[in-house]
Every structure is written in structure tokens, then in C-alpha cells.
Write a structure and sequence with these properties.
By secondary structure, the chain is α/β, with parallel strands linked by helices. The chain contains 11 helices and 9 strands.
Length: 283
């Protein structure tokens, strides 16, 4: 791939997430849980033009999949993601015109949009290096598990760019607070695992050798729940950022009324009456 052709062809993938054989990330499916991890662990799993686009298209297709209920975005060989590849992305960006640059930045933002709108809970299992766009991917996930050695850095200012990248200025303050987000986005410093847990970035910390198992156990617990209702929860968590309280209450009333028409709601009721545990089927 040449620098000139890169912004023009992002190689979108098909819409069938189960038949996809991704080139730039590993994909495993078991018990309706999709576990993905970036390739190239020898480089701490950087992103390239093609991997950005492949992930974006995969998450877009995921919105239409009934076979996947939860996604675990895992680390690979001790690291989550080192961000955009210096040679494959940053170098070519210095030679692009404004049209190409804007196309690229919109494409990377589209990955976050696809994650937010895929309708499936996403769990980031963060170990080791989690920097730049990798930090954004963790931020855009619904739940984050980390390890004591995980280091999250929104290091855009360290390469001469603004901290406002891929939704960071909108999402990160909601997770950890305005002042803490400003600290990370202005300085580009690494957030230590203990800070991240205390600030609410991580839901829990686990030892590295237990991280994936814990993430998949959490995913299994979620996948066994009412998955249509989970989709509604994810939708409202995202949409209500921009709603006044009265609008949010009305939107939730409508969402809950829809969920009350599902068979899972009826299954839960009949199981409760029979003093049994409900078995949800997602409809």
C-alpha cells in the first residue's frame, strides 16, 4: 500500500461477522461471545489504516448479528494496543492534504461510532500498553477490566496533536471527571492502573494471567441475560448523554414498554412464579 492510495481504499469487509476471516485482528466465537484481539504483538498490537477500517466494518455488521451477544476486546501477549503505527499511519499522514486527513480522522471516529451503536456490550480486557487509539478503544467499551501493570495513555499531545480525538473530550470526562480527563489529555501521561480503578475507568483489576478468564466470565454472565433488553440499555446509555432529564425519563418509559412485550419478560415472570431461574433467549 502506498501513501497516495491509503486514504482512498479502506477495504471494507462483508456484513456476515461469523463468516469473516479478518486479516488484522483475531476473532474467536464461543457461547455467543466474540473475543477479538489485535495482531502484531511484537509491535504491541498497533493499528493501521486497514485494521481501523476492518474493525469499524466488523462492529457495524455486528449490529445485525443475532449470533453474537457480547464482545471481549482482549489484550494480546501482554499488551492491549499501542495506538496508530508510527510507520504505517503517522508517516503517511504527514504527506496527506487536508481532504485526505479529514477522511482519515472521520474514519477513525467511525470506529468509535460503530462500537457505540453495535447494540452489544463490549468488555475491554486491558493489559500492558494501552495508548493513543488503543486508549480510545478501551474508553469506548462498555466495561473495562485491567491489570496492575496496565498503562493507559491518551498521548496525542506527545505527537503534536490535540487531545480531542475520536470522542475523547466527550466520553472520557463522563468516565473519570472533567479535571482528571483534562490532566490526561493535556499531558499525554500514562494513567496507572490504581488511578484508573480509583477514578472509575476500570470496573475491576485482575492479575494478568486471570484477566481474559475474568472478562469472559463477565461476558458469559451478561450473555445469559435478556439480550434484547441489554441492547436497549446500551442504546439509552448512549442516547441519554444528550437528553434533558424529562426527555430521558420519557425515552426510558418507551424503551421499557417495548421490553415488556418481549418473551424474555414473560419468561422471567413465569420463572419467578415457579421459583425457578429464568432462561433468557433474547426475544
Amino acid at each position: 500500500m502506498t501513501a497516495a492510495s491509503t486514504p482512498l481504499d479502506f477495504n471494507p469487509v462483508g456484513s456476515n461477522v461469523l463468516s469473516l476471516n479478518p486479516q488484522h485482528f483475531e476473532l474467536q466465537l464461543q457461547d455467543r461471545i466474540a473475543t477479538i484481539r489485535l495482531k502484531r504483538p511484537e509491535r504491541k498490537n498497533p493499528l493501521t489504516f486497514d485494521s481501523y477500517a476492518e474493525l469499524r466494518d466488523w462492529f457495524r455488521a455486528l449490529a445485525y448479528s443475532s449470533e453474537v451477544e457480547v464482545v471481549v476486546w482482549s489484550s494480546n501477549e501482554g499488551n492491549f494496543c499501542s495506538g496508530g503505527d508510527v510507520h504505517d499511519i503517522i508517516g503517511p499522514l504527514t504527506r496527506m492534504d487536508m481532504t485526505g486527513l479529514l477522511r482519515f480522522t472521520r474514519m477513525t471516529g467511525d470506529l468509535v461510532k460503530a462500537m457505540l451503536h453495535c447494540g452489544k456490550p463490549i468488555i475491554a480486557a486491558v493489559d500492558g500498553v494501552c495508548a493513543g487509539a488503543g486508549a480510545i478503544a478501551a474508553m469506548a467499551s462498555d466495561l473495562r477490566l485491567g491489570t496492575p501493570r496496565a498503562k493507559v495513555a491518551f498521548l496525542f499531545t506527545r505527537v503534536g496533536l490535540a487531545g480531542c480525538d475520536m470522542g475523547a473530550c466527550a466520553v472520557l470526562p463522563r468516565l473519570i471527571g472533567q479535571g482528571r480527563a483534562a490532566d490526561l489529555l493535556y499531558t499525554g501521561r500514562a494513567m496507572k492502573a490504581e488511578e484508573g480503578f480509583a477514578w472509575g475507568f476500570y470496573n475491576a483489576l485482575h492479575e494478568p494471567d486471570a484477566l481474559l478468564a475474568e472478562a469472559q466470565a463477565l461476558a458469559k454472565r451478561i450473555a445469559e441475560g435478556p439480550n434484547f433488553a441489554h441492547m436497549m440499555t446500551k442504546t439509552q446509555l448512549n442516547h441519554e448523554w444528550n437528553m434533558a432529564l424529562e426527555q430521558a425519563i420519557e425515552a426510558e418509559a418507551q424503551a421499557q414498554a417495548i421490553c415488556m412485550q418481549t418473551q424474555d419478560f414473560h419468561r422471567a415472570y413465569h420463572a419467578f412464579v415457579a421459583k425457578q431461574t429464568p432462561v433468557f433467549e433474547g426475544n
